[in-house]
Specification:
- With 515 residues, the chain is an alpha/beta fold.
- Helices cover 59% and strands 9% of the residues.
- It contains 22 helices and ten strands.
- The strands form three sheets. It has a five-stranded mixed sheet with strand order 7-6-8-5-9. A three-stranded antiparallel sheet has the order 3-10-4. Strands 1-2 form a two-stranded parallel ribbon.
- Strand 1, helix 2 and strand 2 form a beta-alpha-beta unit.
- The two termini are 30 Å apart.
């Protein structure tokens, strides 16, 4: 019954998530420029439709899966990525060819935004270093710190290393911290985007692609064809952005986020204010206005900690933890009882729970998106549910197996049925250990729930992922500290309940036996 109830809840949630609700959902990846472009799109469409920005969803695979499943309707992408990474062409394809192939998947490519943000490799600007990519082949001691997506992309490191005969094993780094690692001389070469604001700030030398490996990465919109039909007015507003964002604009907006800590929404509003839709393409491409005095200073930890999003993120985080642990308890406790009573089932049950526990969280989330056909709360709950199973199953099985044989024999002598013995004798005695397993699952879920922000499920992880993208330690702390405090509070609450169980368990079973 518990399994059926949990399955019904999950299926109902999936069905609800799939229902069209008149909301245009804009997605973005987890790097600064994508956050900003997502906000630009959302604000352009907002006067014409209800709009929701699902920001920081992760890498190309996750955002594309969300687009195909209908969890988002449009997101900013780049022609090189679409041609080489998504459509798997060996060479860059034309826009018309990409449109034909995407149409077969119910997707479209349109609205070139006006700038090219290609990949490149950069080194410190020291005198005497390499200036062209071809020179890297003779630099055997160079240390490469590359973003995880670049290392795995077909148009990234594998092809680049082959084209330039580079023999090196790169180290995976988050794009947000690569510049600092390079400046600290922990690595010697990093991958960059040509519109990154930190290139000039750190005085880097962008290596010339002298063999023409990198294609153009013109910013465009990748969208669901039905979205243009469902939101005609909003789509026309998005089309009005065509050709109106210059490379200088994009560099300036990236700098506003990364160097002056301006919010993405404020940066987008500023751009729209200076580039009203009535202006012709290419008009007024000046850099953002100078920030007022004090605006360039980063907010302190206290202001970031209790910003306007604190309580909404807290509610989202608590909901994820509570629901996942409740659902896991409904399944894991009966499974633990089964494992304790049926020796033949013990090893398979424990092994299955253990194997599920070993799946990497990001990999599990990526697999759940196409399986469930949605992003956000539903796949996050499923992932947290999976990770919460093992400690509850294990503790339930161990606790019931450890009930003294004398009490079991006494209960049997009194004529109690197996169900009565379980209810009145074994479960009360096992309750503290079972509760300890639930406590472990809950505390683990508080930490694991931060990963849910990678697929748009909210919670404190939103601050952590945004802070990683901006290399903003204060913002990361404003998400990590509440999560740590919530974990401590969770543990304290469960320990109080455990003490109550232990105080009553010693007298409850003998009282039942006397009855």
């Amino acid at each position: 019954m518990a399994l059926a109830a949990a399955a019904t809840l999950l299926v109902s949630a999936a069905a609800a998530a799939a229902q069209p609700d008149g909301v245009l959902r804009v997605g973005s990846k987890r790097f600064t420029e994508s956050y900003i472009l997502g906000e630009l799109l959302a604000q352009a469409a907002a006067p014409h439709a209800r709009v929701e920005h699902k920001q920081g969803l992760g890498n190309t695979a996750i955002v594309l899966a969300a687009l195909k499943s209908g969890s988002i309707d449009v997101y900013p992408e780049y022609t090189g990525t679409i041609s080489l990474e998504i459509l798997k062409h060996a060479q860059p394809a034309t826009l018309a060819q990409m449109q034909r192939e995407l149409a077969a998947q119910g997707l479209g490519i349109a609205v070139p935004l006006g700038f090219n943000n290609t990949y490149a490799l950069a080194v410190r600007g020291d005198a005497g270093g390499p200036r062209r990519l071809s020179e890297l082949a003779g630099q055997a001691g160079m240390r490469y710190g590359l973003s995880h997506e670049f290392i795995g992309r077909a148009d990234g490191w594998p092809g680049l290393a082959q084209r330039y005969a580079i023999r090196a094993t790169p180290r995976g780094l988050d794009h947000g911290i690569a510049y600092e690692a390079l400046a600290a001389q922990q690595v010697d070469v990093i991958d960059i985007y040509s519109t990154d604001a930190k290139i000039s700030q750190y005085g880097l030398r962008v290596l010339e692609d002298d063999r023409g490996y990198f294609p153009r990465y013109d910013a465009v919109l990748l969208y669901r064809l039905d979205a243009a039909q469902r939101f005609p007015a909003a789509w026309q507003a998005l089309r009005a952005l065509e050709g109106r964002i210059s490379a200088a604009d994009m560099i300036a907006m990236n700098a506003a986020a990364e160097l002056r800590s301006q919010p993405f929404a404020a940066i987008a509003r500023d751009w729209h204010a200076r580039h009203p839709a009535s202006k012709p393409p290419g008009a007024s491409l000046a850099s953002p206005a100078a920030a007022p005095p004090g605006a360039a200073e980063r907010q302190g930890l206290w202001q970031r900690l209790f910003a306007d999003d604190f309580w909404p993120l807290t509610r989202q985080h608590i909901f994820l933890v509570v629901m996942s642990v409740v659902l896991a308890s409904l399944i894991a406790i009966p499974l633990g009882i089964l494992a304790a009573y049926r020796q033949a089932w013990r090893e398979p049950v424990m092994a299955a729970a253990g194997i599920l526990q070993t799946i990497p969280s990001l990999a599990l989330l990526a697999m759940l998106i196409p399986l469930l056909g949605s992003i956000g709360t539903l796949p996050a709950l499923c992932a947290l549910f999976v990770y919460a199973l093992l400690p509850i199953v294990r503790n339930t099985c161990i606790a019931l197996s450890g009930v003294p044989d004398g009490l079991k024999q006494a209960a049997q002598a009194l004529g109690l049925t197996p169900a009565q013995k379980l209810r009145y004798i074994e479960l009360p005695l096992a309750a503290p250990v079972i509760l300890a397993g639930i406590k472990t699952a809950a505390v683990m879920s508080v930490g694991t729930a931060t990963i849910a922000a990678f697929i748009g499920a909210g919670g404190y992880g939103e601050r952590i992922t945004t802070g990683l993208a901006l290399n903003d330690n204060t913002l990361m702390l404003s998400g990590a500290l509440p999560a740590a405090i919530l974990a401590l509070l969770t543990q304290a609450i469960f320990e109080m309940i455990e003490r109550g169980f232990k105080a009553s368990a010693a007298v409850r079973a003998p009282a039942q036996l006397r009855v």
